[in-house]
């Protein structure tokens, strides 16, 4: 039954994930001189992989946007269509249902950010693919972008799940997730603290999501 | 040795829920015996849907508790939930799924899934497995929901206005299928509805909510037979009715005084006679009329659109003087 739930969630958000993946393939493909849509290529390649700030911004923006859309779709769409009533009456703990949803969403966020990034990094690490130096720590800011996307996904999920009378107060989890994770990315701390910080943020949001799911009333 | 009676399928104890300062449900106590088909009635905003949401755990009560098949809803285990089917109002389905896909999605959640029954119900309603749920009519969505609800062979079905928005033919088909399934399996059904004809046909017991309070909980026939409309005819302006035991409401309609009384009998007749009406007419009501008269509410008089000055003799002759 967990597989049924997982497959349903993956299928439901596949359109957004697919579009985001195509965009990432294009942006990162440009960096490898292999753009998906050559007409849209901005300038010639010939760049040092992973050091082009514009490319990283495009990558991060796409990953974060896709994460937010997936998080909101998984919660608000289902609630709006009232299919939550169909789903929540299945014989499964409510926390398990929401963990299943989050697992599916996280996989999609990974699929649209970490997966293309891994290919890009492996290409950059491969000797003979480009005439510039490569060190694995050059990839760190990019992996932090993946972490930011995950935090934003959870923030969007919580925003979609919780009820509030005013739109502004409803969006605070998402706004907080964006601001705090961006600030944490640039915080001058050791890598270990950085990783721990992101993990802590994700853990806090997951606990809040499960608590909200348990307490919330569904129309 | 006598067999122990089956425990009640639903036990509701002092259930209350308020939205802001308004009570949606107040101090509700109810027991639905196993095997009973219970019609849960009330006007819009009477608290039916809120009660059903609390029954299914979708809303949390402010006070009181609900036991379904012996388990508290607040901590309902997946095992117990698998023995309970719930059809939500509007029959929500995933619009992007085909009927076949939604069956495949729901099936793995249950160990007692009866695929044969699903096929039977879908064939009965001539539903193709390849049809998208988003393109189904309301009636067809209800039919798919019924198939999904029945397939795990639940011991308790909770249906929130299952025939809402269905046309007469589809509604009849749906109910007949439901009745067949009930009769063949002897399950407990708790359903709310606005269509009193449906309730009369299916329910063995009814409950009526009025302003968040359960006012009636009795066998359907008992309610129908207990509520009487009594019309008192006068030559001039009817007097105020002084009140009597079982009086639900009274109102003036032209030269008549209409009373709605539960358990009309000699004491009530004596009070009516004290007003010296020209004639008295005790009207039997069907369930729909009884429900309407019972829940119409406050003792307000209908506006007098056309003052009636004389009555047809034929109609008057039928009345008891």
Would you write up a description of this structure?
The complex is a heterodimer of chains A (219) and B (321). Helices cover 74% and strands 0% of the residues of chain A. Chain A is built from nine helices and no strands. Chain A is globular. Chain A has one domain (2-215). The mean pLDDT of chain A is 91. Chain A has 219 residues and is mainly α. The two termini of chain A are 24 Å apart. Chain B has 321 residues and is of the alpha/beta class. Chain B folds into two domains: 10-211, 3-Layer(aba) Sandwich (Rossmann fold), CATH 3.40.50; 223-317, no CATH class. Chain B is built from eleven helices and 14 strands. In chain B, the strands form three sheets. Chain B has a six-stranded mixed β-sheet, with helices on both faces. In chain B, a hairpin with a 2-residue loop joins strand 1 and strand 2. In chain B, helix 4 (115-124) runs antiparallel to helix 5 (138-150). The radius of gyration of chain B is 23 Å and the shape is elongated. Chain B starts with 9 loop residues before the first strand and ends with a helix. The relative contact order of chain B is 0.12. Chain A binds chain B through residues 1, 3-4, 8, 11-12, 81-83, 85-86, 88-93, 215, 217-219, and chain B through 53, 56-60, 78-79, 81-82, 84, 86, 88, 90, 92-96, 104-110.
Topology overview:
The complex is a heterodimer of chains A (219) and B (321).
Chain A: H1 2-12, H2 14-31, H3 53-80, H4 83-88, H5 94-125, H6 140-161, H7 167-170, H8 172-186, H9 191-215
Helix pairs in contact in A: 1-5, 2-3, 2-5, 3-5, 3-6, 5-6, 5-9, 6-8, 6-9, 8-9
Chain B: E1 10-19, E2 22-32, E3 37-42, H1 48-56, E4 63-68, E5 71-72, H2 78-81, E6 84-87, H3 99-106, H4 115-124, H5 138-150, E7 156-160, H6 168-185, E8 188-192, H7 196-202, E9 205-210, E10 213-219, H8 220-226, E11 227-233, E12 247-253, E13 256-262, H9 266-274, E14 279-283, H10 287-295, H11 313-317
Parallel strand pairs in B: 3-8, 3-9, 6-7, 7-8
Antiparallel strand pairs in B: 1-2, 1-4, 4-5, 9-10, 11-13, 11-14, 12-13
Helix pairs in contact in B: 4-5, 5-6
